[in-house]
């Protein structure tokens, strides 16, 4: 079985209150040097057989229409678990 990984992030112009909360908490917890945090979503789609370029393209289309809200989010990557990017 193959696995496709899809990463979705808020568009840069969209406020990210959860990311802001994490960014504010990091220094209080002793993690210094981070200026901002953006929180996104990760989807893992299992497929029968190998991940082919056709599967990656189908996953990208699904990500753009079902897995993300195109008004406020960008699909930033679609790749197989071994790292091949669509």
From TrEMBL:
Instruction: Please state the protein's primary subcellular location.
Output: cytoplasm
Q: Describe the reaction catalysed, as an equation.
A: N(2)-formyl-N(1)-(5-phospho-beta-D-ribosyl)glycinamide + L-glutamine + ATP + H2O = 2-formamido-N(1)-(5-O-phospho-beta-D-ribosyl)acetamidine + L-glutamate + ADP + phosphate + H(+)
State the UniProt keywords alphabetically.
ATP-binding, Cytoplasm, Ligase, Nucleotide-binding, Purine biosynthesis
Gene3D superfamilies, per the entry: Phosphoribosylformylglycinamidine synthase subunit PurS
Q: Which domain of life is it from?
A: Bacteria
What Pfam families does the record point to?
Answer: PurS
Pathway field of the UniProt record reads: Purine metabolism; IMP biosynthesis via de novo pathway; 5-amino-1-(5-phospho-D-ribosyl)imidazole from N(2)-formyl-N(1)-(5-phospho-D-ribosyl)glycinamide: step 1/2
Query: What EC number is given for this enzyme?
Result: 6.3.5.3
GO MF, one annotated term? phosphoribosylformylglycinamidine synthase activity
**Transmembrane parts of this sequence:** none
Enzyme class, one word?
A: ligase
Q: Where in the cell is it found?
A: Cytoplasm
The entry describes its oligomerization and partners as:
Part of the FGAM synthase complex composed of 1 PurL, 1 PurQ and 2 PurS subunits.
So what family is this one in?
Answer: Belongs to the PurS family.
What the protein does comes down to: Part of the phosphoribosylformylglycinamidine synthase complex involved in the purines biosynthetic pathway. Catalyzes the ATP-dependent conversion of formylglycinamide ribonucleotide (FGAR) and glutamine to yield formylglycinamidine ribonucleotide (FGAM) and glutamate. The FGAM synthase complex is composed of three subunits. PurQ produces an ammonia molecule by converting glutamine to glutamate. PurL transfers the ammonia molecule to FGAR to form FGAM in an ATP-dependent manner.
Name the record gives this protein = Phosphoribosylformylglycinamidine synthase subunit PurS
